[in-house]
Design goal:
- Helix content is about 95%, strand content about 0%.
- The protein has one domain.
- It starts with a helix and ends with a helix.
- It is mainly α.
């Protein structure tokens, strides 16, 4: 019983982590070119 709870908790953590990573990726894809242009020019 306890192991199952830990496993589901890990799955939720993994999901949150993946969502966070994808958010960061979108953020980088949107803002990095902007910053790159700003600093190159």
């Amino acid at each position: 019983m306890n192991n199952r709870r830990i496993a589901s908790g890990a799955r939720v953590t993994q999901y949150k982590y993946t969502a966070f990573i994808s958010k960061c990726r979108t953020f980088v894809h949107i803002f990095f070119p902007y910053l790159a242009k700003k600093y190159v020019l």
